[in-house]
Write a structure and sequence with these properties.
Blueprint (H helix, E strand, L loop, with lengths): L1 E5 L4 E5 L1 E3 L4 E3 L13 H11 L5
Antiparallel strand pairs: 1-2, 3-4
């Protein structure tokens, strides 16, 4: 689970990220979200997908 501010909904949001066996799936608009370039949640999702996340 990733928490952060969502510009699409204009509020704090907790996003569930789930491993499906062949990739990650989230319950937000990522990767098609209009604001993904400046979204802190999307940045964290990209780190996790790339395997570069830090605790």
């Amino acid at each position: 689970m990733i928490s952060g501010y969502c510009r699409c909904t204009d509020q704090a949001r907790t996003v569930l990220l789930e491993w499906t066996g062949n990739g990650w799936e989230s319950d937000c608009g990522y990767p098609g979200c209009t604001f993904q370039g400046e979204c802190p949640v999307a940045a964290r999702l990209r780190e996790i997908e790339a395997g570069t996340e830090q605790a």
